[in-house]
Design brief:
Blueprint (H helix, E strand, L loop, with lengths): L15 E5 L11 H8 L4 E4 L1 H16 L5 E2 L4 H10 L13 H12 L4 E6 L2 H8 L6 E4 H10 L27 H5 L11 E5 L1 H9 L7 E5 L17 H17 L21
Parallel strand pairs: 1-2, 1-4, 3-7, 4-5, 6-7
Helix pairs in contact: 2-4
């Protein structure tokens, strides 16, 4: 059941952590957005990349130990449409958390007593967050833009990083194939056994006429992936949006990240990322 009052009152009072999807670079500037979120009252600002790293480990494990078709489940647009229109594939859906659910679990451990707020690029992810027991509130990119405008929060040029459990290579999760490229699948599954899809048309076509050779379907519901989500208002074309994500990844590789902020596996010890 969807929770009430999913939009918190701003400016925030109390302890809050913002969970930002890496597709944000299409809409907002880094690192200015970190400062702007803190000006809105967030004590901590984290990215979903460490959660993505931890679910990658689960995909690696499951694909190594299974020969049947596994359908990636980070995208609620994919999972909800399979449940509604292609229930014959329910057993093929990976029972693995999405990056936002995984990150929310990590935040509950690292920041006990904090309320979690997910900032979403799409409506399906908003619904997922609204139904999660680990996420207290959700706003989308459009609502965040309005908040920044309402409180006249200017961009800042000061350097900063996200708080805690930083990870760089999974920053490409918002673009098609990002999961498969970062889950270290070489040697456990052949390239021609992986199918990367983006957009509802190709997804439905495969589900109606599956290729028996495919063992891993890495699909995102929106054309372009999450950078093409309905809450993204950028006037850039899809290829330019993807380019911004890749440029963000290149920048991240050069950042000097304090050791305490790195996403080590030890920091997620004791958390289950499957369901």
């Amino acid at each position: 059941m969807i929770k009430d009052n999913m939009m918190p009152d701003f400016p925030l009072e109390g302890k809050y952590v913002a969970m930002l999807a890496p597709s944000f670079v299409v809409e907002f500037e880094y690192p200015s957005i970190v400062w702007q979120l803190k000006d809105l009252g967030f004590d901590k600002v984290v990215e979903l990349t460490f959660g993505a790293k931890m679910i990658n480990r689960e995909y690696h494990k499951q694909l190594k130990n299974s020969k049947k078709l596994i359908i990636a489940s980070p995208c609620p647009g994919v999972t909800e449409n399979i449940k509604a229109k292609f229930p014959q594939y329910l057993e093929n859906l990976a029972k693995i958390d999405s990056p936002v659910e995984a990150t929310a679990k990590i935040c509950r451990k690292i920041y006990p007593g904090y309320k979690t707020v997910f900032i979403s690029p799409c409506n399906y992810k908003k619904i997922e967050a609204e139904n999660s027991r680990k996420i207290d509130h959700v706003i989308d990119y459009g609502q965040l833009r309005e908040l920044l405008k309402k409180y006249n929060l200017k961009k800042k040029k000061k350097k900063t990083n996200f708080d805690s459990f930083y990870n760089n290579y999974t920053k490409i999760f918002p673009i098609s194939g990002g999961l498969g490229k970062t889950a270290h699948l070489k040697g456990i599954i052949k390239e021609d056994e992986i199918l990367v899809l983006e957009g509802v048309g190709p997804l439905f076509e495969f589900l109606k006429n599956p290729d028996p050779k495919i063992r891993f379907l890495d699909a995102l519901f929106c054309y372009g992936g999450c950078v093409g989500g309905p809450c993204v208002s950028s006037k850039l074309g899809i290829n330019q949006r993807k380019k911004k994500v890749l440029e963000y990844l290149d920048r991240a590789k050069k950042e000097d990240i304090p050791e305490l902020k790195k996403g080590t596996i030890e920091r997620a010890k004791g958390i289950k990322f499957t369901h």
